[in-house]
Amino acid sequence: MKLSKEQYKEAYEKLSPPSPSLRNVPAAFAVGGFICLLGQLVRELCLSAGLEESATATVVSCSLIFLGALLTALKLFEKIAKFAGAGTLVPITGFANSIVAPAIEFKTEGYILGTCVKMFTIAGPVLAFGISSSVLYGVLLWLLGGAA
């Protein structure tokens, strides 16, 4: 069946329910804010324990990544994400989920072709472009004399 652009647009609009923004936006804000609050609490605990700022940043990042991976493994992250939407994707916990979820889902295909390959299906482009852009930024900073 071949549809024209207009027919496709009509079918799409008829079958796509409108997004309940009045519920989605506050839920995303609340859950995303709660994740950030957890990160801030871990940061304050580390600083009050006498950790240096760089070590504290590492502990906070690792803690949130662990939390995202743990919630994914316990099948709770998906339920939270259904409620919160983008609120779970923006913080680093969403990144952890994007790596752990495919790894768990495809573990039956073996460690190499299942877990290892599928683990970076979503996160691979993020890592590739993130690393590439940070290298480019570093080179530009160095060329412009900003690096010490």
Any overview of this molecule?
The structure is a single chain. The chain is an all-alpha fold. The protein has a domain at 23-105. The protein has seven helices and no strands. Helix 2 packs across helix 3 (53-73) and helix 3 (53-73) runs parallel beside helix 5. The longest helix is centred in the first third of the chain and has 28 residues, at 21-48. The chain is extended, with a radius of gyration of 20 Å. It starts with a helix and ends in a 5-residue tail after the last helix.
Question: What gyration radius follows from the Cα positions, in whole Å?
Answer: 20 Å
Q: Calculate the mean pLDDT score and round it.
A: 86
Overall geometry: extended
Number of strands: 0
The major pleated sheet works out as: none
Extract low-pLDDT stretches: none
Number of helices: 7
How far apart the termini lie comes to 62 Å
Order of helices and strands: HHHHHHH
In percent, how much strand structure appears in the residues?
A: under 5%
Main features:
single chain; 148 residues; mainly alpha; 7 helices; 76% helix; 0% strand; extended
